[in-house]
Amino acid sequence: MKTVGYFNGKIGELDELYIPFNERTHYFGDGVYDATSAGNHVPFAMQDHIDRFYNSAKLVDIDVGMAKEELTELICSLTKKLDSPQSQVYWQVTRGTAMRNHVFPDVHSNLWIMIRPFPRVNLDRKESAITYPDRRFFYCNVKTLNLMPNCLAAEAAKKAGCDEAIFYREPALLAGVSADSPFILEEGGKLKGRVTECAHSNVHILKDGVFQTAPLDNLILPGIARKHLIAKCRELGVPVSETPFSVEEMYNADEVMVSSASTFGISLKSIDGRPVGGKAQDLLKKIQIAVMDEFDAETGK
Questions:
Q1: pLDDT score at 178
Q2: Same-domain check for residues 208 and 135
Q3: How many domains does the chain have?
Q4: Contact between 6 and 78 (Cβ < 8 Å)
C-alpha cells in the first residue's frame, strides 16, 4: 500500500477512509495522539511511545479500548503493509462519535492509525528557528489534539523563513506551572521567563560540555527522542542537567538542538536571525551518531 489508514477496524488508503461528521475531534479536538518513525517496517522505541500514549489518554479520561499489547501488535502489523520501508507511524484515540455537547458522551472511543512514507532524517543539516511566546494551556505534558497554538507558532516560523518556533514562557505565564515543580527560575525573588519546547519538538542546549533540557513538568511534553538523547548522553559520559534555561542562555549556548520522533536531534544555526551554536560540533556529532546507531540497531538497518 502507498499509505495505510485505519479507523475502528477499517483499513485502506488514507483517501479511501471517511470519518463520521460527529466525531468529537471536529468540534473539540477531543483526543490524544502519538507518533514515531519506522525503518525497515519496524517502529522505533515503540514501548516508550505506547506508554506515553496510554498515559496521555488516562490524563484526559479516555479509554483506549484495547490493551497496550494488542495496540502495539496492530500498529506493527499495519506498518508492514506500507510499500516504503521508511515511514512515519501516527495513531490517535478520540472520545468518540456523538452529537455536539461539551460534557463527555457515553460512547466508545475511536481509534485512528496513519502510516505514510517518510524519509530518513539527515542529521548533518542545520535548521533555523524563531522564539514565540508560549500561551498554550497547562496540559503541555499531554499529547493532546488541541494544537492550534502550535500551528500558529509553526506558521509564524514559516513566514519568517525558519523551520521551527521555540516557545518561551513569560513570567506572567508561569503562574500555572505545577506547584510541586522545584525548577521555577527566580531573579531577585521574582519569576523569570524560561524556554519550554517548540511547536513540534523538544529543545535542548549544550553548554560547557553539559546537555541541558527543560524539566518534565506540565509545561513540556515528555519527548521520547528527548528521553533517548538523555540516555545516550549518560552512556557517553556527558553530564545531563534537567533544569530550565532562558532565551538569552539559549542564544549563548555552544549548541542548540531540537528533537522529535522524526528528527532525533537536529542542530540549529540561527534563532531570531542570530547565529547560534557551532562551538561544540564534535560533542554534538557524537551524541547524534549514538542516537542514530540506536535507531539502526532497533530497526535492523
A1: 56
A2: yes
A3: 2
A4: yes
